[in-house]
Design goal:
Shape: globular
Low-confidence stretches: none
Strand order of the largest sheet: 1-4-3-2
Helix content: 10-25%
Number of helices: 3
Largest sheet: 4 strands, mixed
Structural class: alpha/beta
Number of strands: 8
Strand content: 35-45%
Distance between the termini: 28 Å
């Protein structure tokens, strides 16, 4: 099988705040910004991975979701319970400094893990946990 990851999704409650973080702090490029029927999707990605995109979408963007389900998703997002993504970086400590200086909520300072990576963690403006790891062999 010839499979590759193309897109992953992160729920955000404010696209402008999300863009300020993902584009301006992390340095991801904006690949698409689409509005349709009162919804907005913004696609970002690393210049180092032109074939992989992160779609920043509203909680419960599925038009078939019931109002109750949409409310539940919004509440989970507000609590920071929804999962984010894990990024790799060549310099975890430098990335940590840059993101921390932007005023983002720190979940974990850089530390060496027993499974061979150095990593740190933050919450994005919507409350999603994001981890950044540097492999020992990089």
């Amino acid at each position: 099988m010839d499979l590759k990851l193309k897109q992953c999704f992160i729920a955000v409650d404010d696209h402008d705040k999300a863009l300020a973080f993902y584009r301006d702090v992390l340095g991801l490029e904006v690949r698409n910004d689409v509005g349709w029927e009162g919804m907005r999707w913004v696609t970002v990605g690393s210049p180092l991975q032109p074939d992989v995109e992160i779609v920043l979408e509203p909680p419960a963007a599925n038009p078939d979701a019931s109002p109750k389900d949409k409310q539940a998703m919004a509440e989970l997002l507000a609590k920071g319970i929804l999962r984010g993504v894990i990024f790799t970086t060549a310099d975890c400590d430098a990335l940590y400094t840059r993101v921390q200086e932007a005023g983002v909520e720190v979940l974990q300072e850089p530390m060496d893990q027993p499974y061979g990576v150095r990593d740190c963690a933050f919450r994005d403006p919507a409350g999603n946990m994001l981890r950044f790891m540097e492999r020992a062999d990089d």
